[in-house]
Automatic annotation (TrEMBL):
InterPro entries: Dimeric_a/b-barrel, DUF1330. This is DUF1330 domain-containing protein. Pfam families: DUF1330. The lineage of its organism: Bacteria, Pseudomonadati, Pseudomonadota, Alphaproteobacteria, Hyphomicrobiales. Residues 2-95 form the DUF1330 domain.
Length: 111
């Protein structure tokens, strides 16, 4: 089942940003990831969330995400991250082959 990394990014230091964006894409590709969105215009449809830059990456599965994030290759890019940008980063599993999108229980509650 595919897994998706969603990053809400605020660029900070231009030099560090350039180093990070030079290094990160090859690491994503190496671990089977591909960009689905990389910074295009964002329109808030509901609520108060107003992200500046969204990055959406699809990986083959959550194991690939975990391997990428912990990899020595991505560690090189991460060395620039704290200066380059601030962000919120999450991983969410896609819908499996069963096709169900029904939520059986609220997250964090017992059934």
């Amino acid at each position: 089942m595919s897994a998706y990394v969603i990053s809400d990014v605020v660029p900070q230091d231009e030099e560090a940003w350039n180093a990070y964006v030079r290094l990160a894409p090859a690491t994503i590709e190496k671990y089977g990831g591909r960009y689905l969105a990389r910074g295009g215009p964002v329109r808030t449809m509901e609520g108060n969330w107003s992200p500046r830059l969204i990055v959406l990456v699809e990986f083959p599965d959550r194991a690939a995400v975990e391997a990428w994030y912990a990899s020595p290759e991505y560690a090189e890019a991460l060395a620039f991250r704290s200066k380059a940008l601030s962000r919120n980063l999450i991983c969410v599993d896609g819908v499996g082959t069963h096709g169900s999108t029904r939520v059986e229980t609220l997250p964090g509650t017992a059934r």
